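User:
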Amino acid sequence: MQKRSLGLILLLLIFTVNFAHAGTKYIFPAEDPVFSIVFPDDWKIEPDENILHATPADESIYLGVWALDAEDIDAALDALDELTAEIVADLKVISTDTLVVNDIDILLVEAQGVDEKGLIINVSAFFFSPDDETIFITLSYGTPEAEKAHQKELISILKSISAE
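Assistant: Predicted structure:
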């Protein structure tokens, strides 16, 4: 069975499909805006002091956005390793790539592991720095089936990221 990750699908669609960014726009961080991101109206968004937590109505996918306490991409990747260890076991990187969304360079890391129930979990991390100072991460994870079910929404969210 051929594995299709969100990142690969995003790379294929980002240049060919133009999704409308209808939904709720969030400016992040709220105190000192660096970028905006748009979530579908039917998604549940829970902003807290440092993180935007987002899930679709069925809560099958988690998507979080926050600033990393990292000075370079190597430190950001180390932070990803620490974080994902809490979510999945046996995490293996499937692919890495770079892309540009709204003039923002993004490093994409696609990985897969298993959760505590033994379910396969896809993990997608997008590292970006709209202000060339702070490294932000957009991290999503869920089963391959959930990722496929919410593929268009996830792509639309990621394509909505723009510098403020």
